[in-house]
Design goal:
transferase, four-stranded parallel beta sheet, 2 domains, 14% strand, single chain, Rossmann fold, pyrimidine biosynthesis, globular, EC 2.1.3.2, 290 residues, alpha/beta
């Protein structure tokens, strides 16, 4: 099965993936993907997601082939459809893609016989990030997450992470507030506010987002420092509130999160990275065997 966005999976399938990820946290993974070939095709820069997927696949015994985009024929004018058809002719068992254009995964899925797993497409979706965020939240609260209050802070309008988290977390009954300047807010029925400091006392979880400067057609604020004055998560903002802080990375230091917050035990950034490998192991397995 393809995994392009979070709503490709029902609640039961998601819970199975979370349970499998937690199983892999405590147990040596079996080589269920022995002799399977996984291709990673990242047409957009990535550190965490690409490495996480490749480690996940290798942990399960798969052979991983990374498509070197800098040397690929896409630079010679080869279309995405041609690329997909040629990759498919190599008989991989799954292709993991990242692309700057929304809908790239769905487009490729028309031309291949194996699962396409979306590692992020434009400002559209980043489904495995939302799953690892859900795992991090669920484990922290020992599964008791319904009704927990989450604030998503930052460039929500341009964030695929926000889109996937809004869809997934709301399905699991979390109460969502979007915290951003007006030009970073999409049209939405969810609660919105610009008052980060006033909101914090009513939140259990904060998901801070990177400002998506590469997706802005023009500069829409005076500077990143001006943005940070209102929306950077600092120790002064957090105070002693019982709240956990998540961020998908890469962190803009002292713009998204203050350096001191990154050292705070309430900050779950590195736990998210660890959970990313576990979730992606479970997702690759699920897509190949279902």
């Amino acid at each position: 099965m393809h995994f392009i966005q979070t709503d490709n999976l029902d609640i039961k399938a998601i819970q199975t993936i979370l349970d499998k990820a937690n199983f892999y946290q405590k147990n040596t993974p079996p080589k269920t993907l022995q002799d399977k070939i996984i291709i990673t095709a990242f047409f957009e820069n990535s550190t965490r997601t690409l490495s996480s997927f490749e480690i996940a696949a290798k942990n399960l015994g798969a052979k991983v082939i990374r498509l070197d985009i800098s040397k690929s024929s896409t630079l010679k004018g080869e279309t995405m459809a041609d690329t997909a058809a040629n990759l498919n002719a190599m008989n991989p068992h799954a292709i993991i893609i990242r692309h700057k254009n929304a809908g790239a995964g769905e487009h490729l899925a028309r031309y291949v016989d194996c699962p396409i797993i979306n590692g992020g497409d434009g400002a559209h979706a980043h489904p495995t990030q939302a799953l690892l965020d859900l795992l991090t939240i669920s484990n922290h609260f020992k599964g008791d997450i319904k009704g927990k209050r989450v604030g998503i802070v930052g460039d929500i309008k341009n964030s695929r992470v926000a889109n996937s988290n809004i869809e997934l977390l709301s399905r699991f009954g979390l109460d969502i507030t979007l915290i951003a300047p007006p030009h970073f807010l999409p049209k939405t029925h969810f609660k919105t506010t610009q008052d980060l400091k006033g909101s914090i006392k009513n939140l259990d979880i904060i998901i801070s987002l990177r400002t998506q400067t590469e997706r802005h057609n023009y500069q829409i604020y005076g500077s990143l420092q001006d943005y940070a004055k209102q929306f950077c998560i600092t120790k002064n903002i957090l105070q002693d509130h019982n709240v956990i802080v998540l961020h998908p990375g890469p962190v803009h230091h002292n713009i998204d999160l203050d350096d001191e917050v990154l050292k705070d035990p309430r900050c779950k950034v590195l736990e998210q990275v660890s959970n990313g490998v576990l979730i992606r192991m479970a997702v690759i397995e699920h897509c190949i065997f279902n």
